[in-house]
């Protein structure tokens, strides 16, 4: 089954921040998709800190990996990057504590999205701020900078699908069950949605029935073979029954289902 969603998988990078110090930027939404019909998107940047933030906006190309992202190699950027198709405004901003600004991303005038999909990441960076860090009776100064990024996807003609595989029941460091699975994308567009684990016990009176865990913002990007996803189940054991794993769509794919897998769970010995 085929499904796609708009993902903004945002991450915060605190550069050279000592313990006890924070430099935060809040960026929303987490992801946006531009097409020939939807040529413009908007992000909101908020300043939750008690200091003035001077920031700049640019593009960065990141390759997807099984666990997240890494800087894109030069030889893959030409096939991956959406930046040549995009404009962004404003390129710089200043936010007082509690303020916010809207950053607009657009397809350039006269440019049509190419077939398939391109992706770049909107990068918001703030300049280092001189922050006082106290240690015992001495005052120390530390320069702290922060950045946040979110995928911007340019889509032309195409479709998406994805499958669930490599499903395993593991245990975390405290012995609780952890469900691990791989999302493998297919087609010419990336997939996006949520991975949901449910359990139907053989004994209808059992208390483990229903949703065991959900992992939101799960993207299957075409530049990596698979995405490994783990869902904490917060249980030490399951009784006899059926475990079902669903990769459901979200965003523009809300209500669609990429894939569904069910597994029989044997009674504990």
| Helical stretch tally | 1
DSSP strand tally: 19
CATH architecture of the largest domain: Sandwich
C-alpha Rg, in Å? 22 Å
Question: What's the level 1 CATH class of the largest domain?
Answer: Mainly Beta
Label the structural class. mainly beta
First and last CA, distance = 37 Å
CATH superfamily of the largest domain: Immunoglobulins
**Arithmetic mean of pLDDT:** 85
Low-pLDDT segments = 1-23, 130-144
β-strand percent reads over 45%
Number of domains: 2
Largest sheet: 6 strands, mixed
3D shape: globular
Fraction of residues in H or I helices: under 10%
Order of helices and strands: EEEEEEEHEEEEEEEEEEEE
CATH topology of the largest domain: Immunoglobulin-like
Walk me through this protein's architecture.
The structure is a single chain. The N terminus is likely disordered. It is built from one helix and 19 strands. The protein has two domains: 145 residues, Immunoglobulin-like, CATH 2.60.40; 104 residues, Immunoglobulins (Immunoglobulin-like, Sandwich), CATH 2.60.40.10. With 269 residues, the protein is an all-beta fold.
Short description:
With 269 residues, this protein is an all-beta fold.
Short descriptors:
269 residues; mainly beta; Immunoglobulin-like; 2 domains; six-stranded mixed sheet; four-stranded antiparallel sheet; 1 helix; globular; disordered N terminus
List the helices and strands and how they pair.
Layout: E1 11-15, E2 26-28, E3 32-34, E4 40-46, E5 53-60, E6 62-64, E7 69-71, H1 74-80, E8 86-89, E9 92-95, E10 100-107, E11 117-135, E12 138-155, E13 160-171, E14 177-187, E15 191-201, E16 210-220, E17 227-232, E18 241-249, E19 257-265
Parallel strand pairs: 3-12
Antiparallel strand pairs: 1-12, 2-4, 4-10, 5-9, 5-11, 6-7, 8-10, 11-12, 13-14, 14-17, 15-16, 15-18, 18-19
